[in-house]
Amino acid sequence: MGSTGNGFAGDRAATIRGGTVVDKDVDFANYFCTYGFLYHQKEMLCDRVRMDSYYNAVFDNKHHFDGKTVLDVGTGSGILAIWAGQAGARKVYAVEATKMSEHARKLVKANNLQDVVEVIEGSIEDVTLPEKVDVIISEWMGYFLLRESMFDSVICARDRWLKPTGVMYPSNARMWLAPMRSRLADQKMSDHEGAMGDWFCFLDETKTNYGVDMSVLTKPFSEEQKKYYLQTSLWNNLHPNQVVGTAAIIKEIDCLTVTVNDILNVRASISSSISAEETRLCGFAGWFDVHFRGSKENPAQQEIELTTAPSEDYSTHWGQQVFLLHPPISVSKGDDLNINFSMDRSKQNHRLMEVELSCEIKQTSGKLLLPFRNKFYIE
């Protein structure tokens, strides 16, 4: 979730730049179809943080759009393309992979921009434009920034169609990680224990009533439930007081220069310090921010930030990605955490992610707690 559908290459299959071969029809069925529904577009259009950030980025920096050519990658409802046109763009190419393009055309015409905004249905890897563009604008961010792998398509568009002097909207992105506390950890552990208790009742009843011993399936069932309840990361909107330590950047991206290979995996070794008094370390929260800065040669007149960090005042449809520990660990103010983080694309689905997270905790007393390593799935 987070951006309008776009991005597969080839006639029947596309070789993703990580070596994963993806069938075009399967990818469309699993991913793009969601973005073809107005209810999903409405959810994103109701995200005030998202909308205000892009609106301000465009209209506070009209010099990037006035009289210029613009490419909107994954236009969805067409809102960004319409804003670019209202900001004075000479021509806007709005590319959308789904039938949402039909709604986008109606909106463009209803806002009297049909002579400026051209909606093109197709994947950005396949379409051909008649000219290079001055600006590429796209809302490509998924959960924890990189889920959905739509940024691949934006990079493809940049390499094919952006002028050497062109700018990217957004221009920069960052991923953050911080220690957190949450009752979700207890809830998910309870849910897991309940599922396993139900399984053992099922075994007894099946053997008693039907004479079949199914206990040989206990191990795979247990692994399945462990992944579902304990290892699958969760979407959540956290309150700032649930963040119990300093946040650290685990990835910085320059949208003008980054390559697909640069984002196939994320590796970071970071440090954090517990800032709350006696509390529980229940896991780690991940979020992102993006910035609209223009380029070094053509900077923004007004830099805009869109952040999905925990806040008292707002929430976004992205929220934060939560990686829970089972069981939680007691920590105190001043304890130091050394964290190793890695994230790779799932081998089964290149739009999903697998995370490995390890941590060493040094208490204020100087005692080292036993290091732990956990695997998580962003699905």
UniProtKB/TrEMBL annotation:
InterPro entries, per the entry: Arg_MeTrfase, PRMT_dom, SAM-dependent_MTases_sf
Reactions mediated catalytically: L-arginyl-[protein] + 2 S-adenosyl-L-methionine = N(omega),N(omega)-dimethyl-L-arginyl-[protein] + 2 S-adenosyl-L-homocysteine + 2 H(+)
Annotated GO CC locations: nucleus
Keyword check for ATP-binding: no
A Pfam family this chain is assigned to: PRMT_C
Organism superkingdom: Eukaryota
BP GO annotations: methylation
UniProt EC number: 2.1.1.319
Subunit structure: Ring-like homodimer.
Protein name (record): Protein arginine N-methyltransferase PRMT10
Organism (species): Actinidia chinensis var. chinensis (Chinese soft-hair kiwi)
